[in-house]
Amino acid sequence: MNAYDQIAIGDIHVFGKHTFTAEGIRRFAAKYDPQVFHLDEEAARQSLFGGLCASGWHTAAVMMRLLVDYFDARDAKARAAGQPPLVSGPSPGLDDLRWPNPVRPGDVVEFTARIVGKRLSKSRPGWGLLSMTTTGVKQTGEVVFMVTTHAFVETGQPAPIVAGAPSA
Amino acid sequence: MNAYDQIAIGDIHVFGKHTFTAEGIRRFAAKYDPQVFHLDEEAARQSLFGGLCASGWHTAAVMMRLLVDYFDARDAKARAAGQPPLVSGPSPGLDDLRWPNPVRPGDVVEFTARIVGKRLSKSRPGWGLLSMTTTGVKQTGEVVFMVTTHAFVETGQPAPIVAGAPSA
Q1: Alpha-carbon gap, residue B114 to B143, rounded angstroms
Q2: Per-residue pLDDT tens for A91-147?
Q3: Predicted pLDDT at B123
Q4: B55 and B28 in contact (C-beta within 8 Å)?
Q5: What's the ipTM?
Q6: Which of B31, B90, B95 is closest, CB to CB, to A48?
Q7: How far, rounded to the nearest angstrom, does the alpha carbon of residue B113 sit from its chain's CA centroid?
């Protein structure tokens, strides 16, 4: 059974945790999102946030890093067991990204995904499209991040013969 | 007239351009999205991408930086003219993010936004919610990025009196 066939709608994948520090929050913000409430504790206290908080793009980037590490570790295990790894390709995009609560210095956010969609690609024979909803929850139980992402993965099946397609 | 009132649905904001380099693509990927097709030219050539390309999260982070710089410059101009700046608060999230084409080393991507929504916030008196659709187009004319983001901005109006709310 190939890696694509082993993934089922409803599967849960726990990517892991990340601790956000004030320094890490400021470093990301200085490069990609230099708004005062991500950079300056005092200015942040005067803002609607009431204190320093991470850029939402920082939270998203951290999620992506944990996702990649998680699937890399999973693939290494598969290879060690003589099984094929899950081969990922491009992502067409994502939907419904939400930042319902701020991420503060010291917050520990755990990201967990659920497979919510799986189908063969119409545009790319031999590839499937996986969709998953990933949630980031911090130590207080508050949800700080939600998103539904989509990605192409190899099905391990030969490309189907399409009626009427050129034979060459 | 305050800054919120000066923004109208249909307004276009040209954030500016960014040139993606192989080094910049690899640096972002090494930290946040270490998939081979963002890190290794040869492995990328063997992948569905056919060559090195930027992490989609990198493209998004670059868009955010140009957005912040653009509104900072706009606010500086407003302040110099004795006008109030646009005060931004949290973003509840975003919708329909798409990466329709890869960003390659040497690509110059220009990001342009259109205001697509503007309303007073129900949950945060004195604040409005702006929505904009931002598109990233590279020098070939190909669209590489699309997203509709939402953000709270100060309306400059006092919070309305809510019937039945406590007077203290």
Answers
A1: 15
A2: 999 999 999 999 999 999 999 999 999 999 988 889 999 999 999 999 999 999 999
A3: 86
A4: yes
A5: 0.91
A6: B90
A7: 8
- Interchain pair A65, B34: CB under 8 A: yes
Q: Could you tell me if A115 lies within 8 Å of chain B, comparing CB atoms?
A: no
CB B118 within 8 A of CB B128: yes
Determine whether the interchain pair A99/B89 forms a contact, defined as Cβ–Cβ distance below 8 Å: no
* CB-CB neighbors (< 8 A) of A88 in chain B: 35
Return d(Cα A93, Cα B76) in angstroms, integer. 34
Tokens 């969709």 belong to: A131
For B41-96, what is the HEC assignment? Answer: HHHHHHCCCCCCCCCHHHHHHHHHHHHHHHHHHHHHHHHHCCCCCCCECCCCEEEE
Residue owning tokens 């931004």: B88
Residue B73 makes CB contacts below 8 A (sequence gap 6+) with: none
Smallest CA–CA separation between A96 and chain B, in Å? 5
Domains belonging to chain A, first-starting first, are 12-154 (3.10.129.10)
The tokens describing A129, both together, are 């499209």
Confidence of residue B168 (pLDDT cuts 50, 70, 90): very low
